[in-house]
Amino acid sequence: MEILQFLILPFLASLILTGIHAYLGVHVVERGVIFVDLALAQIAALGATTAILIGMDPHGTSAYWMSLGFTFVGAGIFTFVRSRQKRIPLEAFIGITYAVASAAAIIAMSKATGETEHLKDMLVGNILAVSKHDVIKTALLYGAIGLFHFIFRKKFLAISLSHNSAEPQPEINVRLWDFLFYASFGFVVTSSVAIAGVLLVFCYLVVPSVGAMLFADRIGTRLAIGWTMGTLVSALGCYCSVFFDTPTGATIVCTFGAVLVVMAGVKAVFFRVKQEEPQPVEVRTRQVV
Amino acid sequence: MKLKSKLFSAILSATLVATLLLSSAAEAKKLKVITTLTDLAALTQEVGGDKVDVEALAKGYQDSHFVEPKPSFLLKLRNTDLLILVGLELEIGWLPPLITQSGNGKIQPGGQGYLDASQFAEILEIPQGNVTRAEGDVHPMGNPHYWLDPDNGRRIAKGIAAKLSAMDPGDQAYFQQREQDFEKRLAEADKKWMAQMAPYRGRKVVTYHRSWPNFAKHFGLDVIGYIEPRPGIPPTPSHTIELVGLMKREGVKIELIEPYFDLKTPNSIASMVGGKVVVLMPSVGGKPEITDYFKLFDYDIALLTKAFEETK
């Protein structure tokens, strides 16, 4: 079982990812901003490219702050756009941001001198090669952000749940909390993408949340299902990666897909009767934990 | 799902135990060698014969700059006595974290079992003086595609033989004898290759990536341009137009490219200048029939001479 010890760190890392992303995923799915992480990750990558372009060391602290700074600008854009333009779906702006940031990164790369392979690294971090230092650092960082979200959970959830309704929330400064949400989210995504790659981060964010919504409405239950699913899929994915000797990140992504299909099947077979019963009170959907 | 993972774990442990038992019984004495590229594995095999167990991480048809790490890489690195790499930052995108994560003290940079083959080879395109990034492209330590020159193949084999002898002094005579035999066979083969290429000495070519300077130098080709404006950057319109103009002025008909690059731009350039795209193999194992270092040159030179013949 020698090989299993190599998977301890990737598995721990994927547990950390599950912890924060399954939670943030609930927000993202509620808000209907599914691709916001891809857009923010791309903006972070653009920041890294820019850092290289002006001669910073791509692995240095200043490059990290640069890409974080870009992410915050992106968070600002999404906040601003949301409060200004109600008629145009936010997802459209997210798509535009993604496309423009990607293209700008390509242009910047073509002007950058050498080191472009590092950039590719940054975009497709490899969870198999995650180091102990990365795991500890990420755990502390996400712990802090998780705590922040836990303390202010009522505010964050209230905004996310009322995202599509036009009613104003008089007691909450929506713009401020929106920005804090996107900023902390961008912070997480930037770090996650650097260790796990864009595809994997996207899956950890969206799939557990969607899988949970098949079975539950209440936020608390959804979180519990999402975390369980994320943990099981991480373990199974790591295992398959060893068993078939396939790249770990990509294997976990495919495992996510397969498990989601199984869950949908289970729901179709076993839960059909339940659905025909009249839905209990709709209010429960909007309950805050 | 639980059942499935139990089944997996049962199969997995059975396989692992079986492999461990078999390998420990049969190969008690062989030196274990892992190389990054197949070419280094081929050279190690020439020198090490049946006293070494050598395996490459990358496949011969993969882009050696980007190799997707798999769990088995870590296991191989952990259990190896010697890691031989190309160096010059060729593998920088994927190898360093794997070396660290392998937990194998022997193969850490500077360790007993860490052999950077570039120290033996003649390295071209080493940037002179101050390396400013403004130069673009440059691998700051020189061009890492050095194994594509038979003279470097000989030098590397010699270096590997010395390393193997140091690690396994009992078999020193064996390694030296094999190395000399390889050198002899290589010299003969090189005579043949040089004769095949002789009619085309001094011919001008363009290449996609800067992968062929050592090859071109040895066989007397003149690389006058690159399809990539910078390494890793896809062709841009203005660069392509410039290159087409240059090729027309100089009468260049041949474009050399590796199998993993996109052929669209090279093909359209070829149709504009009435030339030919030649997909050369940069490494052993790029095609099933390229089983060793000799067959690599056999294959590439056969393609190249045919292309020169057709574009006279």
Protein model, in words:
The complex is a heterodimer of chains A (289) and B (312). Chain A is built from twelve helices and no strands. With 289 residues, chain A is mainly alpha-helical. Chain A has one domain (4-272, 280-286): ABC transporter involved in vitamin B12 uptake, BtuC, CATH 1.10.3470.10. In chain A, helix 1 runs parallel beside helix 6 (132-151) and helix 2 packs parallel to helix 4 (90-111). The longest helix of chain A is centred in the N-terminal third of the chain and has 28 residues, at 4-31. Chain A starts with a helix and ends in a 13-residue tail after the last helix. Chain B has 312 residues and is of the alpha/beta class. Chain B has two domains: 30-129 and 138-191, Nitrogenase molybdenum iron protein domain (Rossmann fold), CATH 3.40.50.1980; 198-310, Nitrogenase molybdenum iron protein domain (Rossmann fold). Helix content of chain B is 47%, strand content 11%. In chain B, the strands form two sheets. In chain B, strands 2-1-3-4 form a four-stranded parallel beta sheet, sandwiched between helices. The relative contact order of chain B is 0.11. At the A-B interface, helix 1, helix 5, helix 10 and helix 11 of A face helix 1, helix 3 and helix 4 of B.
